[in-house]
Write a structure and sequence with these properties.
Blueprint: E1 2-4, H1 10-21, E2 23-27, E3 54-55, H2 69-85, E4 89-93, H3 97-104, E5 130-134, H4 137-153, H5 156-166, H6 169-174, H7 185-192, H8 198-226, E6 231-235, H9 237-244, H10 249-277
Helix pairs in contact: 1-10, 2-3, 4-8, 4-9, 5-7, 7-8, 9-10
Length: 291
């Protein structure tokens, strides 16, 4: 399982791991579950997947409503089990920690698990290799601002302009639990409706993206510190700094290999060996989610 704030490199790492280990990726981003708005929701383009199959990416109808935690638990468990049954490694990756909790916790409880009182400490329901791609907060904020500008150049505004032109208010209301929550939709919607300037909309997108990243980190820390889940932190700050200063792809790749990819692959391989050596349980239980 690969977790981390938006923009830290979870997608890249999941594909790196899948390529190196013969795996397939299972999505754990709640907005990317829904079909549509691929640029706005940051779905990895087919050309960048390096031939790695992806599951639960754009797999839910835009008007399907909010996917309950038990439903995601069932879908992701089935996808990972199918991957493992074919002799492949399931690599679960995404920034929605509510989905991470839904898949991994031994008990789901009621309400938001991250708002629960201090007495709620779920355990992992099966062995899992938990990896956290982290980036220094100030460095990540600068990068996220730049990434929003990149998304504008890649067509986010045009994608959303077409979306608002092609859908009715009632249709968009049906998307409120999914695509409607994607950062960019409400902000640029206000711009298109004349309630905000384009510059203000982009500034709001940047601020809301930074806020999302901070909230994601707080939830990961809760999983590690309050719940005691064994999460290994990988520091991708050097890679992001290299990108921000324009050091070039070779410098970025060297930082990524040294600080993230190589230690992650070593950790996963050790975990796989441990899983092979573990005694089989007398009663059926879910297969381990390997990453």
């Amino acid at each position: 399982m690969i977790v981390g704030a938006t923009g830290t490199g979870k997608t890249k790492l999941s594909i790196d791991a899948a390529v190196a280990l013969g795996g397939e990726v299972v999505n754990a981003d709640k907005i990317q579950l829904y079909a549509g708005l691929d640029v706005t929701t940051n779905k990895v383009p087919h050309a960048d997947r390096r031939g790695v199959p992806h599951h639960l990416l754009g797999a839910v109808r835009a008007n399907a409503g909010e996917l309950p935690a038990p439903s995601y638990r069932a879908l992701a468990s089935a996808a990972a089990a199918s991957v493992a049954a074919r002799g492949r490694v399931p690599v679960v990756a995404g920034g929605s920690n509510s989905l991470v909790h839904a898949l991994l916790a031994d008990r789901l409880g009621d309400g938001d698990p991250f708002e629960a009182d201090g007495g709620y400490r779920p355990s992992l329901r099966f062995p899992c290799c938990l990896l956290w791609v982290d980036v220094d907060g100030a460095v990540l904020d600068e990068y996220l601002d730049r990434r929003v500008d990149d998304m504008v150049r890649e067509g986010m505004v045009e994608e959303l302009r077409e979306y608002f032109a092609a859908t009715t208010a009632a249709e968009r209301a049906a998307h409120a639990a999914g695509l409607g929550r994607a950062i960019g939709v409400p902000e640029l919607g206000a711009c298109f409706a004349g309630r905000a300037s384009f510059r203000a909309a982009i500034d709001d997108i940047k601020a809301n993206t930074r806020d999302l990243a901070a909230a994601q980190v707080r939830k990961i820390r809760r999983m590690a510190d309050a719940w005691g889940w064994p999460i290994q932190r990988l520091d991708a700050s050097a890679t992001v700094r290299a990108r921000l200063r324009g050091a070039g792809p070779d410098a970025e790749s060297a930082c990524w290999e040294r600080n993230v990819r190589a230690p992650v692959l070593a950790t996963i391989r050790s975990f796989l060996l441990l899983c092979i050596e573990l005694p089989q349980p007398a009663s059926p239980m879910p297969r381990p989610h390997l990453t």
